[in-house]
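Sequence only, no structure available. Ideas?
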Amino acid sequence: MAQKVLVTGGGGYIGSHCVVELIEAGFCPVVIDNFSNAVQGERDVPESLQRIEKILDTSIEFYELDLLDRTGLEKLFKQRFSSSGHGHSFSAVMHFAGLKAVGESVEQPLRYYRVNLTATMNLLEVMQTHGVRNLVFSSSATVYGDPQRLPIDEQHPVGGCTNPYGKTKYFIEEMIMDQCKAEKDWNVVLLRYFNPIGAHSSGLIGEDPQGIPNNLLPYVAQVAIGRRKHLNVFGNDYDTIDGTGVRDYIHVVDLAKGHIAALKKLKDNCGCKVYNLGTGTGYSVLQMVKAMEKASGKEIMYLIAPRRGGDVASCYADPLLAEKELGWKADFDLERMCEDLWRWQSKNPTGFTKNSPFSI
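Reply:
I predicted one. C-alpha cells follow.
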C-alpha cells in the first residue's frame, strides 16, 4: 500500500508540482490548503489539483484546512481509520503552507510572524502527539540574508535576514532543529529554495499569483501576455553585471524532484539535514527579461523603480551537497524554464480562473 504523505499548502504553486512528483513516485499525497495561494475550483477543491487529476488520471484526497485551526488539524490526524478506508497514518509531512512575499512581509510583519510561526508550531505539536516524526520543510535562501560570499553553501551563516519573511523561515528552522535535538527519533530535511520558476510541461498547472505578482517571472509573463503594461525593475544600481538584482532561478519541476529525494533521505534516519536547492548560476533581472522575450516572442516593457526593501544584490547557490547526499541535481536550463513558463501563461492568460480559454 502506498505511503501517505501529508502535503500542507499543496494547492499552491510549488506544492501542486510536488503532488505530481509524489504520485509519480508511488506515494499517496493527502493535501490540505486554505486557498490563500490557491484558486478554488469545482467541488471546493483547488483548480490545480483538479487539473493534476486529469494529467495523471487519478484522484487526490483533499481537505480545506488552515493550519491555524489547531482543532481541525487534530481531527485530521485522528482520522487514522474510517468506514471508507481512508485512514490517515501519515508516513511523513511536506510543509509548504505559509505566507511567502518578501515585500508584503516588510509591510505586514506581524501578520507574517503570526501566520507562519503559529501554523508551523501547530503542525509540529500535532505531529508530535500522533507519532509522525518525518518532515520535509519548505525553507528559503532568504535565511542567508545579504550573502557574505558567493556561491552560498549550507555552511554560510544564517539569521541575518533582511525581511520578516526570511526571518519566519529562519525561526521555523531553529524550532525544527531544537525539536530534533530534543527528540532523536525525528527526521527532517530543511530545503532552502532559491527562485522557483517555470511550470509543468503540460501547461495545465503553473504559478498563478492572486493579485499583483510579488515575484519577477510571473510579473514578466503577465506583461508578455498583455495583462500588465510594464514591469517595474526595483533598482539598477546594484553591484552586478547590469546593475539589477541577480538570483538563482530553478525549474519548479526540478525543485519538486528535490523533495522526492529528500523524502527518501528520511528513510535513512538522517536526523536533521539542510540542503540548498538551486542551479548554482545567477541571472540578473534584465537577463531574465531578455530570456522571456525570446521564449514568448514578445517585447517586454519595463521601467526602473527604486530599490525594494529587503532585497539583496546577488544570491545564488552552491548545490553540490544535495547532489552528493541526495543524488539530486537540477536538469532544466534557463531556456527550458522560460519555455515552460510561457506555455503555461499563453494557454492560461488569466491563470486558473474560469474565463481562461484553457480552463477545464
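The first helix runs from residue 13 to 24.
Hope that gets you unstuck.
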